[in-house]
């Protein structure tokens, strides 16, 4: 089940014209015949239902409302299946998100109600990512991210606020939320109960795409271990180049003293995982994902 960490490095979202979290209060459920599943949220029950194992369940009463989302990691015979739900569609085999929901605003935080407890060394998490389709690169640019690891335990309903870390001034067009009772090594009976999700607050942004976003920006090798090369026609004097982790912390930063088309950043010493390379100057800013091996 260590493939769960792939969720943090392969988020692909769809776009439409809705600006709210789908089924945010988990009041709407679909009866599949053998189990109930929260409408608008994918999970692993379709993969384990033949074993009568369900890791995503309908809890009652809600806080508020009639129902809440009950995620419990379960032993499925050959291993423990994490209690996980994704706002959109998920590949049940790879555990990778395949779609999200549309979002055109820049919220400050994700809020809601929760209870959770992990067993052994397990640790659940809540992850949110906002993205925007780049018509030049034909890829998704990451606008904001938030990762909240579930430390300790919350044994009664409590409220939470998870702040989003913005990596660019752009407005997103899509979002995805991942709720998981377990981390890389799921432990039986670790649980996460969730209700009353909402986006709160607003962070100012740039309504019109930045000039830099319409120009070439490449990073390679990717994945990499020690060095990453940033190449662009817009690496002018004063350009700030940052390497940022998934919770928005700047782990490496360089400021160019002279203009260039190619710059090499030393990322030696960074832990294996997903990062973002951000270049910023008077032309605007742009972000691309970097995988460190």
Describe this structure in words.
The strands form seven sheets. Strands 3, 8, 11, 13, 14, 16 and 17 form a seven-stranded antiparallel β-sheet that branches. The two termini are 19 Å apart. The protein has one helix and 25 strands. It has 293 residues and is mainly β. The protein is elongated and about 60 Å long. It folds into two domains: 199 residues, Jelly Rolls; 82 residues, Sandwich (Immunoglobulin-like).
Briefly characterize the structure:
The protein is mainly β and 293 residues long. 1% of the residues lie in helices and 49% in strands. The chain has two domains: 2-200, BT2081, beta-jelly-roll domain (Jelly Rolls), CATH 2.60.120; 211-292, Immunoglobulin-like.
Topology as a string of helices (H) and strands (E): EEEHEEEEEEEEEEEEEEEEEEEEEE
Helix content range: under 10%
Distance between the termini: 19 Å
User: What is the name of the CATH superfamily of the largest domain?
Assistant: BT2081, beta-jelly-roll domain
Low-confidence stretches: 1-19
Number of E-type strands: 25
- Provide the domain count: 2
Return the CATH topology of the largest domain: Jelly Rolls
């Amino acid at each position: 089940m260590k493939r769960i960490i792939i969720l943090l490095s392969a988020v692909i979202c769809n776009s439409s014209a809705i600006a709210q979290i789908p089924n945010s209060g988990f009041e709407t459920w679909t009866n599949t015949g053998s189990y109930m599943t929260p409408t608008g949220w994918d999970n692993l029950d379709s993969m384990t239902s033949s074993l009568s194992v369900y890791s995503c369940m309908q809890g009652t009463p809600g806080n508020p409302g009639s129902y809440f989302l009950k995620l419990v990691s379960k032993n499925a015979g050959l291993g423990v299946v994490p209690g996980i739900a994704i706002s959109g569609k998920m590949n049940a085999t790879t555990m990778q998100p395949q779609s999200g929901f549309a979002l055109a605003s820049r919220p400050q935080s994700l809020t809601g109600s929760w209870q959770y407890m992990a067993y052994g060394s397990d640790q659940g998490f809540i992850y949110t990512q906002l993205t925007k389709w780049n018509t030049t690169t034909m890829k998704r640019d990451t606008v904001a991210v938030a990762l909240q690891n579930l430390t300790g335990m919350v044994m009664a309903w409590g409220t939470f606020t998870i702040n989003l870390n913005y990596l660019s001034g752009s407005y997103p067009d899509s979002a995805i939320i991942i709720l998981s009772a377990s981390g890389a090594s799921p432990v039986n009976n670790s649980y996460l109960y969730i209700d009353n999700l909402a986006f709160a607050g607003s962070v100012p942004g740039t309504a019109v795409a930045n000039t830099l976003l319409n120009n070439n920006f490449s990073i390679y090798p990717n994945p990499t271990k020690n060095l990453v090369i940033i190449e662009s026609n817009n690496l002018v004097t004063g350009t700030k180049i940052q390497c940022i982790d998934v919770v928005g912390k700047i782990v490496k930063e360089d400021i160019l003293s002279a203009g260039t088309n190619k710059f090499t950043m030393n990322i030696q010493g960074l832990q294996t995982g997903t990062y973002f390379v951000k270049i910023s100057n008077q032309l605007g800013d742009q972000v691309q994902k970097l995988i460190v091996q």
